[in-house]
Amino acid sequence: MSDADPRFASAEDVRARIDTGKPHSARFWNYFVGGKDNYEVDREIGDHIKDIFPGLVDVARTSRLFLGRAVHYLAGEQGIRNFLDVGTGLPTADNTHEVAQRVAPDAHIVYVDNDPLVLAHARALLTSTPEGKTAYIDANLYEPGKILEQAGDTLDLSRPVALMLLNVLGHVADHRQAKELVSSLMAGLPSGSYLVISDSTATSEGMIAASEAYNSSGAVPYYVRSTDEIAGFFDGLELVEPGISQVTQWRPDGEGETEVVDAYCGVARKP
Fold first, then answer.
1. d(Cα 203, Cα 205) in Å, to the nearest integer?
2. Is cis: bond before 242, omega within 30 of 0?
3. Average of pLDDT values for 59-83?
4. How many CB atoms lie within 10 A of CB 238?
5. Could you give the C-alpha distances from 204 to 172, 211, 249, in angstroms and in order?
6. Are the beta carbons of 108 and 130 closer than 8 angstroms?
7. What is the Cα–Cα distance from 187 to 168, expressed in whole angstroms?
8. Sequence-distant (≥ 6) Cβ neighbours of residue 158 within 8 angstroms
9. Is 201 helix (H, G, I), strand (E, B) or coil?
10. pLDDT score at 237
11. Pair 177, 144: CB distance under 8 Å
12. Cα–Cα distance between 177 and 174 in angstroms, integer?
């Protein structure tokens, strides 16, 4: 794919949008999962938070494993062939399209993010099987109409879609607004679609302290919520067993994921 691809900003424009003076959630998370797409400022706050609450590294790792299990379940057991991954973050191992297309080579995946560093690496997300298709939309979570309109160029929105919102809703300070954004996205998807959410939660003093440290660093804040608030995102949908659970306890696949982590998740079907 050439640099002249009209779907992408120029390399100069992308570089101009990258702020290396403040930590950023995508780069910070990338550091925690062992990636290399981060800066010293991200590693500094990451190391500081690890001193406060080492368990956040486990949250990052196990949340990524949950993504794989959820996508495998939806593509393999429920026949989902359309995936809309909003707030995708930086490419690492086993991205949504890689997991989905291993199960279903004809799966179509659309990634959505507005972080300039993610945009710079977006081409790594656009590999695909010959039978399937992937695309990237440079858009904000607060633009559900734009997301759905552009996603329709790649996804068949007349057929069920899996909406993936993984570790992104915490950036929306107001819970009511976050619920409205989720509802707006789900409203544009047909019956039989699925909502997949995971987020860090205010379920220990350590996680709350880590969140406060991160928010005081100058980064875009991330607000940890209660499990009841996480459950509220699924109002009106049919939760898949085991319901709202820690990410390590959602259909574990025998990899030894038994630890307690401050991250909860759910998968639910739109009637």
1. 7
2. yes
3. 95
4. 11
5. 20, 11, 17
6. no
7. 19
8. 190
9. strand
10. 98
11. no
12. 5
